Amino acid sequence: MSELQNTLSFGNRLKRTWNSDLCWRFRHSPVAIISFAVTLLLVLSAVFAPIVAPYNPFDPGSLNLMNGFTPPSTPNAFTGDQFLLGTDDQGRDILSTILYGMRISLFVGFAAVSLGMFIGVTLGLIAGYFGGIIDAIIMRIADIQLTFPSILVALLIFGVAKGFTPVEYRDEVALWVLIIAIGLSDWVQFARVVRGATLVEKNKEYVQAARLIGRSSGSIIFGHILRNVMSPVLVIATISLALAIIAEATLSFLGVGVPPTQPSLGTLIRIGQGFLFSGEWWILLFPAVTLLSLALAVNLMGDWLRDALNPKLK
Amino acid sequence: MFSFLIRRVLQAGLVLLIVGFVAFSMFNFVGDPIDNMLGTERTQADIDRLRTQLGLDQPFVVQYWKFLANAVEGNLGVSYRQGRPVAEIIAERAPATLELATVSALFAVGVGVLLGIYTAIRRDGLVSHIIMSVSLIGVSLPTFLIGILLIYLFSVELDWLPSFGRGEVTDLGGWTTGFLTTSGLKALILPGITLGLFQMTLIMRLVRSEMLEVLRQDYIRFARARGLSEKAINFRHALKNTLVPVITVTGLQLGSIIAFAIITETVFQWPGVGLLFINAVQFVDIPVMAAYLMLISVMFVAINLIVDILYVAIDPRLRS
Amino acid sequence: MTLLDIQNLTVEYPSRHGVFKAVSGASLTVEPGEIHGLVGESGAGKSTIGAAIMGLLERPGHIAGGTIAFKSDLISGLDAVAMQDLRGKKISMIFQDPLTSLNPLLTVGEQLMETISLHLGLSQNAAQQRATALLERVGIPDPALRLRQYPHQYSGGMRQRVVIALALCSEPDVIIADEPTTALDVAVQAQILDLIKDLARERQVGVILVTHDMGVIADTTDRVTVMYRGEVVESGTTAQVMGAPNHAYTKSLIAAVPRPQVKLKRFSQISYGGRETRFAIEDIARNWTRVETQADTPLLSVRNLEKRFPIAKSIFPGHSTYLTAVDDVSFDIMPGEVFGVVGESGSGKSTVARLISGLYPLDKGTVEFAGQIVSDPRDKAAVMQFRRDIQMIFQDPYSSLNPRMRVLDIIAEPIRHHKILSGSALTKRVHELLEQVGLGAAAAAKFPHEFSGGQRQRISIARALATQPRFLICDEPTSALDVSIQAQILNILKDLQDHLGLTMLFISHDLPVVRQMCDRVAVMQKGRLLELQDTETLFAAPQTDYTKELLTLMPHLEGLSDEGLDI
């Protein structure tokens, strides 16, 4: 191994990655660079919200009800405090609630997509590789679920879970139920695409070569095929992330998502909706703009990735 | 072809049976129906009576069968929350949702297909690029936010259109319609656009990518090599081939319009089944949830059958 | 009058790696009634010339220099509208794959009549009559009925006839045929080429026939232009270029073509452009552990093989219909022998290879290897040993190597799986193998896409040799390769047999290749084994009518130069 490692030093690898087609396209696409930068900025500021945010909106000690409804960048009439993006009815700093809210939104989004991806990719590989009755069962379930839009599936799972949980625990488990509901509503996309790609891959001769050596089905599926079906998975995962963030916002907006004690972007918009018509536009506008920027940046990246990874469009 | 359709009908039946099973399981396992229907002051005799009355003492399969038979007859149980038969509540609410869904579907398909074709044919044009960029914003903007923005702009600021409700409706023998009054029609515009916008962008992007895919095919190159005009190539050769995959997905999208109506109805306080459902979820009103689920699945199955028939009509390969 | 006159044509494709010249400074002319062959290996730029004439270059490709004139009118650089007027009307084109060239949703009649009305302005009735006449001319029986059918109701050969009819709609002066028979079986191929020949004579159409197949060139064309990496290297009458080539590249190309009439010791490798790569067979042989075998007992014997595939599945048991892909096939292969199996597509030859190797489960029959039954999956020990002793070289070098694995891991996989070596000894072994097949140890760190088709096939060979097998299955090992690369790979296979005494099962549709490679040959048709003979006997005195027909359809290549052949 040592000889090989020497010829491929870290710097060399980095250089090769930098010059690879994907990287080259990335470097030459302003849209890709901007959307990547925006996503990175938003994710980082959400992750480091406790450091970045000017206030902790969930610390009752730092709240002053007198600061309620302070417009953006204007000193409060009573306290003289100034907030960049203004405050809500309870005097919470909007910027801080957005940063903390985005944490919840992103956490739910990433966790739900990971769950959906894990289930979908595994089932898709199995259905595509083994075919026959296993395939028929998995894909029939997928078809039936596809009949129901994800938001409805998520609502149903949410409703059923609510029925099962005693009232006093509902808030505690709500976040996890939300993740499971969105994740389970979204595996079908992955399964269908992975199954399709697996059907193509399994007939390629490299799979036959591996079978000829005597490799087991498991090692062929996960050692050989999986790495060849990852490009479409990556594209779907990106687009699903945007959809999951929107789904979370939607469910929270409908009042069935995360509890009000941990407001996500959707919850903030729901709260803001009540004040929009009475003139306090900032309570709605800034969370909405953040949500839009996040979803748009992720969607743009997904769109770009799909084109960049599509060999037909070269 | 006949066997293809028979198979599809059988599959549709299977889907309905499974959905029925899910709905039935919700009834049986989520919470205790007895708990839900009787108050805290109850005697064991009350419980036993209700148990027999609801057939809960019978074997599982028998209960399932009875549930299905009841559902077919239109007996969908009694709402825990309102105490009225679910079928009655749904019949009252359905026209509002169906009218809204129809308007949105026409908007989504009509505009979506046209823009999709346009952006595919003029793939490098400036207008196409603008449409594509705007459409990405459309996909990134949650439906409820679109609704709120439209209300703010057209109802609050401009005061042109109503911000909630159906306006004035006419009762046509149990079917209430908003199509016949000016205020009813005006009330449909904002929710119709809100509901249709997301589907429209999806359909547009789908039509575009399918058409670009078709335009790369050998038979298009060959048609070009035969000297056929761009018009004949785009509209006679490419469009028809584009429609084959588009129809399936569009069918699914149209079905999901009814489900997405949940959000739009919440934003616009539209008195349809979606609003009914969301309230049911909040209050764990299982009979209403189950009935809604079955209603949606019946519609889906119907739409899918129509899609299959269209498929056969378009693609000669399925006919032989 | 010259129909087409191309002078100094240069076509460029700008890309991030710089400007790629697909064609540089190519000149050629086409006269009425003449079939002009355009021959070369992949990447020679021959198809690009066809697309440039039609004005159908794929973006961002463009004509960067030179002229194309049609009947002395300049047509290079015409705008889209003017080109559209010319396309189909004066110059037509036929594509390679008849399965994808026709619109699946329109009837054949609709497609024909649309083109006829467009170019000739005929009424509906007159157009229909002309469409019927055209179908009849290209040899489609019952044309009136066939007009109302859709493309999927036609066979592959019939579709290619429809494509030709479409190209003839407006009496064009020039037809550009881009590999028109590559996707077809030999028998159909011969018919289509005859049709093109007849049309050229009968209507005085000028034809540019783009192909990689020297057999097609020698049997069909009047003049030929040889291309290499975008440049014309030689041009002249077919008899002159094929019989007495001047340019070194043409010589090497012709010498690499497998001959049907005579068995060569080795393929000659007059290399051109420094492409010859070493294959260190002596090094391999030195480290090879041979297993002693008795020369008079078969190494592999298969008995009564049968395999059925479901065509139409029915939900009712017993109602499914099956295709019997392999039907009662038995034969023995002796140690050190190269055993050929030939047949057209669908004959079941590849299925036999997959049944023997255990890639498909058997429906009936047995496979015995070195005296041990290996077709019973329950006998794990026997199967495991068999997996070590057999290896396979596949047809498509682009799909037989996992694109996301490094060459090191690809070659190491069989060694790891059979736990022969591990750690640094394993890496060392892989590097040795790569040196021996002529790629060098540095290749281990690369991915398959960094190699050409011939180099990939060498990686496949290295992988196959990794477990020191006794039996090698070659399934059309060279049919996806250019003819000069094919010669190299076939020589390597010959070396393996000579120096290591490897026993081989060699599957091919290409009779000349089979004659060069095999000791005995089995002919298969529709799943059955028709004839089994010593190779020389089979070619000299075929027994069955089917074999006789296959042999007549073989390209004859009589005018080809013998220079450099190792007879």
Would you mind describing this structure in some detail?
The complex is a heterotrimer of chains A (314), B (320) and C (567). With 314 residues, chain A is mostly helical. Chain A has 15 helices and no strands. Chain A has helices at residues 2-7, 10-19, 21-27, 30-47, 49-52, 94-130, 132-147, 150-164, 170-184, 187-202, 205-213, 217-228, 230-253, 265-276, 282-309. Chain A is globular and about 80 Å long. Mean pLDDT of chain A is 82; it is low at 1-7. With 320 residues, chain B is mainly alpha-helical. Chain B has a domain at 94-272: MetI-like (MetI-like fold, Orthogonal Bundle), CATH 1.10.3720.10. Helices cover 76% and strands 2% of the residues of chain B. Chain B has helices spanning 2-29, 33-37, 44-54, 60-72, 86-121, 126-140, 143-157, 182-215, 218-225, 230-268, 273-282, 286-314, and strands at 170-172, 175-177. In chain B, strands 1-2 form a two-stranded antiparallel sheet. In chain B, a hairpin with a 2-residue loop joins strand 1 (170-172) and strand 2 (175-177). In chain B, helix 11 packs across helix 12. The longest helix of chain B has 39 residues, at 230-268. Chain C has 567 residues and is an alpha/beta fold. Chain C folds into 3 domains: 1-90 and 174-180 and 192-257, 3-Layer(aba) Sandwich (Rossmann fold), CATH 3.40.50; 91-171, no CATH class; 333-358 and 373-553, P-loop containing nucleotide triphosphate hydrolases (Rossmann fold). Chain C has 20 helices and 20 strands. Chain C is globular, with a radius of gyration of 26 Å. The model of chain C has no long low-confidence stretch (mean pLDDT 88). Classes of the chains: A mainly alpha (314), B mainly alpha (320), C alpha/beta (567). Chain A: Belongs to the binding-protein-dependent transport system permease family. Chain A: The chain crosses the membrane at residues 31-53, 104-130, 142-161, 173-194, 233-256, 281-305. Chain A: It is a multi-pass membrane protein. Chain A: InterPro entries: BP-dependent_transpt_permease (IPR050366), MetI-like (IPR000515), MetI-like_sf (IPR035906), OppC_N (IPR025966).
Task: Record the SSE blueprint.
The complex is a heterotrimer of chains A (314), B (320) and C (567).
Chain A: H1 2-7, H2 10-19, H3 21-27, H4 30-47, H5 49-52, H6 94-130, H7 132-147, H8 150-164, H9 170-184, H10 187-202, H11 205-213, H12 217-228, H13 230-253, H14 265-276, H15 282-309
Chain B: H1 2-29, H2 33-37, H3 44-54, H4 60-72, H5 86-121, H6 126-140, H7 143-157, E1 170-172, E2 175-177, H8 182-215, H9 218-225, H10 230-268, H11 273-282, H12 286-314
Antiparallel strand pairs in B: 1-2
Chain C: E1 4-15, E2 18-30, E3 35-39, H1 46-54, E4 62-70, E5 73-74, H2 80-86, E6 91-94, H3 108-120, H4 124-137, H5 143-146, H6 156-168, E7 174-178, H7 186-203, E8 206-211, H8 214-220, E9 223-228, E10 231-237, H9 238-243, H10 248-255, H11 281-286, E11 300-312, E12 321-333, E13 338-342, H12 349-356, E14 364-369, E15 372-373, H13 380-389, E16 390-393, H14 407-417, H15 423-436, H16 453-465, E17 471-475, H17 483-500, E18 503-508, H18 511-517, E19 520-525, E20 528-534, H19 535-540, H20 545-553
Parallel strand pairs in C: 3-8, 3-9, 6-7, 7-8, 13-18, 13-19, 16-17, 17-18
Antiparallel strand pairs in C: 1-2, 1-4, 4-5, 9-10, 11-12, 11-14, 14-15, 19-20
Helix pairs in contact in C: 3-4, 4-6, 6-7, 14-15, 14-16, 15-16, 16-17
